Amino acid sequence: MKLIRTENYEAMSLEAGKIIVDKIRSNPSLTLGLATGSTPKGLYKYLIKEHQENGTSYKQVKSVNLDEYSGLQAHDPNSYHYFMRQNLFNHLDISEYETHIPNGAARDLEQECIRYEQLIQELGGVDLQILGIGQNGHIGFNEPGTPFSSRTHIVTLAENTREANSRFFNSLAEVPTHAITMGIASILDSREILLLVSGEKKAEALLKFMNGEISEDFPASALKHHQNVTVIADKDALKYI
Ligand code: GLP
Questions:
Q1: 68, 143, 189, 234: which one is catalytic?
Q2: What value does the mean pLDDT take over residues 35-59?
Q3: What's this model's pTM, rounded to 2 decimal places?
Q4: What is the dihedral of CA 16, 215, 147, 68, to 10 degrees?
């Protein structure tokens, strides 16, 4: 595992952005695994700016997102579909047919999980997966206790995850109770992983990740089984390390 230390959030976003742009330049039909949340927002801003200034093209790039709330339509401002369009896709030349996100509004969610897992296989797997980390160590929406062998599945969100994410909603009651997420095994299939960690709120989770044991009680620890993980963390997140 490689650790890149950065001074602050902007520098973390820049480091991640440079790695991604380099990959796209050398493989224009890259399949990117994308994440939502506050953490990758700066990275997405960088990719947009870089695309506008240098013309790096995403015409052949494909993307798969980690997760989506259940019960929210794609046009719902709190859906991850909406987030991705607003924060990235609308500003790049990527084809909307090549951006994939689990459909949390599907009638048959079990079937949707199977479809999504097959889709990732059909795309040939993820070349580069971007990840954030939850304060309880979750990756995607894989909460503590999720088997490392898990594939795309429906989850019941932990209460602290709902609370952490309620800042985007009008009230806690509006935060969905369930979501679809790529499983831990699906994530570990990615050929390369970039884990972004920023801010003091994540310092304990990062400490546990770096120094703690590998356990299903701390989902991110599964990444230690992967051969090609780069952690890019800022000073505040690295407070205890
Ligand atoms: C969310 C997302 C994760 C994300 C994490 C951290 O619930 N499902 O994919 O990495 O929690 O979010 P943030 O970056 O906002 O701290």
A1: 143
A2: 98
A3: 0.96
A4: -30
